[in-house]
Amino acid sequence: MGNALVFLLICLDCCLHSPMYFFLCHLSIVDVCYASSNVPDMLRSLLGQGRTISFAGCGAQIHLYLIFALTECVLLAVMSSVRYVAICRPLRYALITIWRLCLTLATVPWALAFVFGTLQASLALHLPFCGPCEVVHFSCEILAVLKLACTAATADKVLIFAVCVCFFLFPLALFLISSLDILATVLRIRSAPGWHKTFSTCGSHPTVVGVFYGNAIFMYVGPGSGNSPGREKVLSLSYSLISPSVNPVIYSGRNKQVKEALLKLQRRKRVFHSV
User: Fold this and answer.
1) Is 161 in contact with 167 (CB distance < 8 Å)?
2) Closest by CA position to 202, among listed 225, 180, 184, 179
3) What pTM does this model have?
4) Quick one: DSSP state of residue 130?
5) SS3 assignment, position 149
6) Local confidence band at 224 (pLDDT 50, 70, 90 cut-offs)
């Protein structure tokens, strides 16, 4: 609901037609698709209803899950770069406002995620599986499915680790480097209004990045990647449901422009009902 509202506000309010909100709009789309791909099955499993799924349905769920998760990884890195240019290289920010470049930067995450997500899902689903095929998870999460394979699935695990390094650690390193430069630039600002404007514009992004990458790295790359099934379920729930749900709140809570756009939408609604 929150992501749909953010998407609607950005589309309707011309004041939000800027590169930063353009990519935020894409992030809202990714979050909606990401949650929709596995949350319904997750809720049915939690409620004890419909705990079976076909092999094709499981494969489709893995494929969509990987595409949307990898898209968000790269998209967050792109948004970090946009904020870096806006604050540290303001004279070059005009280059990003060229919509052809914005469309290219928005297309790259989707394209990369589709290629690598399809590759990972294809390799995983072509493994021989031994019965009983019972996934110890809320949904068809790829690591939980690989545990059912009759073979060691070493190639798949190596590929998953390589993709995690490319899609998690490299974008996170880019975010950390750009954040340090942004912090150095902000510390040189002498006026209080300048501080407030900068933090209201960019302060929400580190929170979203920390929640998303923290859960992902702990689950797939770091020492937490060998978690017990119970802990993996909790991490997956946070990763799949909580993060997409709180992203619009984090981005919009302290954003003056989004609040003004929401007030405009409410006024339009009142005028429409009064006519």
Assistant:
1) no
2) 179
3) 0.82
4) P
5) strand
6) very low
